[in-house]
Write a structure and sequence with these properties.
The chain is of the alpha+beta class and about 150 residues long. The chain is about 35% helix and about 15% strand. The chain contains 4 helices and 6 strands; from the N terminus they run αβββαααβββ. The strands form 2 sheets. It has a 3-stranded mixed sheet. Strands 5-4-6 form a 3-stranded antiparallel sheet, with no helix packed on it. Helix 1 crosses helix 3. It is elongated. The two termini are about 35 Å apart.
C-alpha cells in the first residue's frame, strides 16, 4: 500500500464513521517506532506507522486510522481531543476506535542463561552475574547457555 491508497482509505473511513470529510494529508511515516500513528496539531495531517499494517493487516490499520481521526475531528471542532477528555472517550466508543494499538517492538535478547538443576532458561538483554544470582524456580546455579551479542 502506498500513500495515495492510504489517503483514499482515510477519507472513506472519515465519511463512513464520522460523516465528515478528511481534507488534509495522511501518509506513512516509517520513522514512527512506539506508536501506530499520530495526529499533527499544527498541520492537521495524520502519520501512520507502516510496520503496523505490514505485521497486523488492514483491521489494525483501520483501528489506528479511526483513533487518529477522533483526534482530528475533535480538534477541528474545538472540542476535547486529548485521550483524557470525555469528548474523545465518547467519540472513540461511538466509532469503535481502539484506545491502544498492538505493539510491534520486538524484545532484543543478547544473553541466554540456563539453570543447571531444572533447565529453566532466562532471556536477558544485559549480562547477569552468575555468581550472585540463582534460579527463581529451584535456587540452582545458572550458566550462560548462549551469547548472541556480537
Amino acid at each position: 500500500m502506498n500513500n495515495y491508497e492510504l489517503q483514499k482509505i482515510v477519507e472513506e473511513i472519515s465519511l463512513e464513521f464520522f460523516h465528515k470529510p478528511f481534507i488534509h494529508l495522511a501518509t506513512f511515516n516509517s520513522k514512527l517506532r512506539t506508536t501506530g500513528g499520530r495526529y499533527l496539531l499544527r498541520t492537521h495531517n495524520i502519520d501512520i506507522n507502516p510496520k503496523h499494517y505490514q505485521k497486523f493487516g488492514f483491521k489494525e490499520l483501520e483501528g489506528i486510522i479511526k483513533h487518529e481521526l477522533c483526534h482530528y475531528h475533535l480538534h477541528i471542532e474545538n472540542k476535547g481531543y486529548q485521550h483524557r477528555d470525555a469528548d474523545f472517550k465518547n467519540l472513540s466508543k461511538l466509532v469503535g476506535a481502539p484506545r491502544h494499538c498492538s505493539t510491534v517492538k520486538e524484545r532484543k535478547i543478547n544473553y541466554i542463561y540456563q539453570c543447571r538443576n531444572c533447565g529453566l532458561q532466562y532471556n536477558r538483554v544485559r549480562v547477569l552475574n552468575t555468581w550472585k544470582y540463582r534460579c527463581g524456580k529451584c535456587q540452582g546455579k545458572l550458566t550462560q547457555a548462549e551469547n548472541r551479542k556480537i
